[in-house]
Amino acid sequence: MAHRLLSPANKFSARFAFICTLSLSCTYLCYSVLFCRSTVMTNQGYEGKRCPPKNHAGAKKLLGKLEVCASLGVRTALDESAVRRGTADLREPASSGSHWAATRLTNVSTAQKYGNKKLPNALIVGVKKGGTRAVLEFIRIHPDVRALGTEPHFFDRNYERGLDWYRGLMPRTLDSQITLEKTPSYFVTREAPRRISSMSHETKLIVVVRNPVTRAISDYTQTLTKKPDIPTFEELAFKNRSLGLVDTSWNAIRIGMYILHLENWLQYFRLSQIHFVSGERLITDPAGEMSRVQDFLGLKRIISDKHFYFNRTKGFPCLKKPESSSHPRCLGKSKGRTHVQIEQEVIDQLQEFYRPFNIKFYETVGQDFKWD
Ligand SMILES: Nc1ncnc2c1ncn2[C@@H]1O[C@H](COP(=O)(O)OS(=O)(=O)O)[C@@H](OP(=O)(O)O)[C@H]1O
Fold first, then answer.
1. What is the ipTM of this complex?
2. Where on this chain does 3'-phosphoadenylyl sulfate bind (predicted)?
């Protein structure tokens, strides 16, 4: 009805307006298809802005799902919470002007996008309070290493869950990258060597060892922070102190009898498959110890002196802070605690107790750790 009422002049203007709108729409459509898709959709800056800030409450969950965010090098929720639950405050560099950090970033993001979850090729199996977290956090700055931040306890507590479950926990890696995890209790778990060798005979094993007396005191100090009412160190360490009878059933003592545990490992692995890191040298010369770890893992030596500095407040080496990051670069408060004070006489008695075990251990591994 309406258009019947329009005059011929009005009809002409309506048609003209319709044709103009149509041709403008077509032009816009062609332009979008030809140009916009290739620029806007792959623009990293733009996509980067779409990624939620990773310290936002809901963002951590979401980041794990947003492949594009992961591919931009933003750590996934799993990685973040893994590091926190693993008690480490050390964060790997988010970015840096230096070449190694850039390579690492590229490898991490490529692995997250194209990599596969694989069973670990290498394990840090012990020892508790030896410096295992430091080794894991230092080695994972290598671009060819991807490590699980938490301790999965697969070969001791979770073995029934099966290898598929275990593999599912691992970070994605490229074929050229090593998958690594650390669980210090493996070293003293009777079934661990057999179980690990049945996963693969070729698994490389790293053991961080430390003077067993200092290790025991460190272990006790940690227990005390959780259970302040436990007996004194001396009460737990000796069955009869005046007779010098040490209580070897106390875990803090038993773990330090390294040779006994090692013999179990040597039933399943060649000595050349096991690398021993000195917990003491890891503090005085982290780069030197990490060079040997890189050699053992068949990695190019990338981690060196230039990655470390000695933090006087903490009293330990820390990783240098990349220019663009404000993250703390030292291990968390639970690493490098002030130990409870133990009488020198008790220390001497325990040194005496451990001596024969230490000597046998040095002979077996072919290295003197100088604890005596
Ligand atoms: N760079 C650096 N920073 C901080 N701490 C360092 C470092 N290198 C080695 N260590 C020593 O690591 C000890 C903790 O060992 P672990 O990480 O194996 O402990 S745990 O078994 O995972 O709980 C921890 O033991 P305590 O000093 O007794 O706290 C440290 O002595």
1. 0.99
2. 129-133, 210, 218, 335-339
For the stretch 150-178, pLDDT in tens is 999 999 999 999 999 999 999 999 999 99
Q: Token digits for 248? A: 């070897």
State whether the Cα torsion 82-86-87-88 is positive or negative.
negative
Rounded to two decimals, what is the model's pTM? 0.76
Residues 229 and 331 in one domain: yes
- Do residues 198 and 320 share a domain? yes
Q: Does the annotation flag 179 for ligand binding? A: no
- For a mutational test of ligand 1's pocket, the pick from 91, 133, 341, i.e. the residue with the most ligand atoms closer than 8 A to its C-beta, is 133
Q: β-strand 145-147 against 204-209: which pairing, if any?
A: unpaired
What values do phi and psi take at 245, rounded to 5? -85, 110
> Hey, CA dihedral for 106, 112, 116, 121, is it positive or negative?
positive
- Same structural domain for residues 177 and 256? yes
Helix (H) or strand (E) holding 120: none
pLDDT digits (tens, 9 = 90+) for 204-243: 999 999 999 999 999 999 999 999 999 999 999 999 999 9
Return the C-alpha torsion angle 64, 65, 66, 71, nearest 10.
50
Q: Ligand 1 site: residues with CB under 6 angstroms?
A: 128-134, 184, 218, 282-283, 316-317, 331, 335-337
